[in-house]
Design goal:
The complex is a heterodimer of chains A (398) and B (114). With 398 residues, chain A is of the alpha+beta class. Chain A contains eight helices and 13 strands. The relative contact order of chain B is 0.16. Classes of the chains: A alpha+beta (398), B alpha/beta (114).
């Protein structure tokens, strides 16, 4: 449940991050685009005025009226820092206008000369230029947009700071909300686990008593079909109760994990089961890579291997094979059982209480591979099953 | 073999007492901790104790059993039991095998120490 809560916070944070980034990027792109657009309007006005602002009439009204904002404002010709140089084909340069303090006229001329070949754009970060021709001459007009760009950069800085702050506040808020949201679920989950554990314990003693009583009844009156049936059912229920308990205590929180050698566990489980395979007439082949290990819960992993071996012992008809390999950091465990089943996917074997057609009379309860799937899921792994050409193939990737 | 069987479930005690009696063993039944502690005085060969035995502090009970050098088989409710434990549910054969194993181990240990 803690994992689900962390996932919720992570996905919500990712969504907020993407949303804020896209929104603020669009706003900032528009702001910078507008700064360039305004600068181009001004250089166009200067081109129309042959390198200088055309004389504007004083607008009517008190103080001449405020007039429009932007490049058409009557204040423009006084506030813009710019220069224009004219280059003729003979190589001589004429200063048409020079109203700039940040560089000397010589430096400006040199800059203009370097821009002759272009059309328009940004130069030296904050200067916008335009190259135009008139009367056989090439004119280069450069305006300083530093002040306008400063506003745009401030908006950018505030956007980044705002996003970081927004993400931090969202994180705290989501942690708080996540706790509130998942608290009832965590309680329900704990109650469910507790209920299963309690129910399991309550079933255990009666099953033991029934098992003992059946033996006593058979001793007194002899075994018959009915007592044998009760005995079989008790055995079945005993297995079910044992498996239910294991599912309930399965540790998905990653607590108690350590470096576990899968190679060793698999070898040990198969060695212990070797005699049983021989007894059942199942030809066993094994291919286990050396030193394949994983950071995990040793008991849970031992149980996974035991369930796989048990599955082979119960359902393999003539042969079984196990392989454990590691490639590019991924561990692959493959179990193959000889089978009489038809070709096709068989992922339903991982569903609880579900068995395939070949399970009849095999004492399978559909819980062993459900445990395997849960365990594999806890390691972000994948388990698949299929039947192909007389082989039941179970693959686990970790 | 004299076996102390202590469990709060009377049906369980009664069924296993019959099984043990039929197999020629002498069974001392106890249904709580106080009775189990009293029964310790009767020098049982082994003690079978339910881990949820009421009216006792299990540590004290184990200490008393240990002072009488009585090997103990604990009937547990969890699957992951340790040494000398038998997890519920179990069948009479499993129970007898666990008792006999504990008894013979204890006999061997006593033989080595004398």
């Amino acid at each position: 449940m803690k994992k689900a809560r962390n996932k919720f916070v992570l996905y919500a944070m990712l969504s907020i991050f993407v949303l804020l980034t896209v929104l603020l990027s669009v706003i900032n792109m528009i702001v910078f685009e507008m700064a360039a657009h305004d600068a181009d309007d001004i250089t166009m006005m200067l081109a129309r005025g042959k390198g200088n602002f055309m004389t504007q009439e004083r607008p009517e009204g008190e103080f001449g009226g405020r007039g429009p904002m932007g490049p058409t404002s009557p204040e423009m010709n006084k506030s813009i820092r710019y220069f224009t140089f004219a280059f003729d084909s003979g190589g001589s340069v004429e200063t048409v206008a020079f109203q700039l303090s940040a560089m000397s006229e010589d430096e400006a001329r040199e800059l203009a000369s370097s821009l002759k070949g272009g059309t328009c754009g940004w130069v030296k970060m904050t200067y916008r230029y335009r190259v135009w021709s008139a009367g056989g001459k090439t004119f280069v007009t450069v305006i300083d947009q530093g002040r306008e760009l400063l506003v745009a950069y401030r908006i950018l800085i505030f956007s980044v700071a705002g996003e970081v702050l927004g993400l931090a506040i969202s994180f705290l808020f989501l942690m708080f909300i996540g706790k509130k949201l998942f608290s009832p679920l965590e309680t329900a989950d704990a109650k469910q686990k507790n209920f299963i554990a309690e129910a399991e314990a309550e079933f255990k003693v009666p099953l033991t008593v029934i098992g003992a009583d059946i033996e006593l009844i058979e001793r007194d009156g002899g075994a018959n079909e009915r007592t044998s049936s009760v005995r079989r059912q008790v055995r079945k229920m005993t297995e079910l109760v044992k498996n239910l308990g294991s599912l309930a205590i399965f540790n998905q929180n990653g607590e108690g994990r350590e470096e576990v050698s899968l190679s060793k566990i698999m070898r040990s489980e198969l060695d212990s089961a070797k005699a049983k395979f021989d007894e059942a007439g199942i030809i066993l082949s094994v291919d286990i890579g050396d030193d394949i290990s994983i950071y995990g819960d040793k008991k849970a992993l031992e149980r996974v291997m035991r369930e796989l071996v048990d599955n082979s012992l119960k359902f393999a008809c003539d042969r079984a094979s196990f392989s454990l390999t590691q490639q590019s950091g991924r561990i692959r465990l493959t179990q193959k059982n000889g089978t009489t089943l038809q070709n096709g996917g068989a992922d339903q074997v991982f569903d609880r209480f579900t068995t395939l057609e070949n399970a009849a009379g095999k004492n399978g309860h559909g819980l062993g591979l459900a445990y395997v799937k849960d365990a594999v899921k806890a390691y972000n792994g994948r388990a698949t099953a299929k039947v192909d050409d007389g082989e039941f193939i179970l693959e686990i990737t970790l | 073999m004299k076996i102390l069987f202590a469990s709060p479930d009377r049906d369980l005690v009664s069924s296993f007492k019959l099984i043990l009696d039929e197999r020629g063993h002498d069974t001392l039944a106890a249904y709580d901790g106080t009775q189990a502690i009293s029964a310790c005085e009767n020098a049982a060969d082994i003690a079978v104790i339910d881990e949820r035995l009421p009216r006792t502090d299990m540590a004290t009970l184990y200490k008393i059993l240990s002072s009488h050098e009585t090997p103990t088989l604990t009937l547990t409710y969890s699957q992951s039991g340790g040494q000398n434990t038998l997890p519920y549910p179990f069948f009479p054969d499993e129970f007898m095998a666990a008792c006999e194993k504990l008894y013979s181990e204890n006999q061997t240990k006593r033989g080595e120490s004398t």
